[in-house]
Design brief:
The chain has four helices and four strands; from the N terminus they run αβαββαβα. By secondary structure, the protein is α+β, with helices and mostly antiparallel strands. It has a four-stranded mixed β-sheet. The chain starts with 5 loop residues before the first helix and ends with a helix. The model has no long low-confidence stretch (mean pLDDT about 90).
Length: about 100
């Protein structure tokens, strides 16, 4: 039996994303509606710019007393996160995360 790829393992998932101009509040609302702990930040050309996680919102917004309704996600996102190819084997992706 061959090992599953990342794409095969994530087949039932939808990509949750916002534009970089979206506010942290708007991103939090999207995350709440989709029961997700993170959201990708993607520009109008579908290029991934970064990711915003619940932890980012706590440490980069709440802990710094920024206004979530005024703060764009682009200012608090993790830029250029490491990505894997959808056809990569799951075990190889796990090794990459461990490293």
């Amino acid at each position: 039996m061959s090992e599953r790829t990342v794409s095969q393992s994530m087949a039932q998932r939808h990509v949750i994303s916002v534009l970089p101009t979206a506010t942290v509040y708007a991103a939090a609302c999207v995350m709440t509606r989709t029961n997700s702990s993170s959201v990708l930040v993607i520009d109008a050309g579908n290029t991934m710019l970064g990711i915003v996680t619940e932890r980012d919102m706590i440490t980069r917004v709440l802990a710094k007393a920024l206004d979530p309704q005024q703060t764009p996600v682009a200012t608090v996102m993790t830029r250029s996160p490491h990505c894997v190819n959808p056809e990569m084997k799951v075990a190889d992706a796990v090794l990459m995360m461990i490293e």
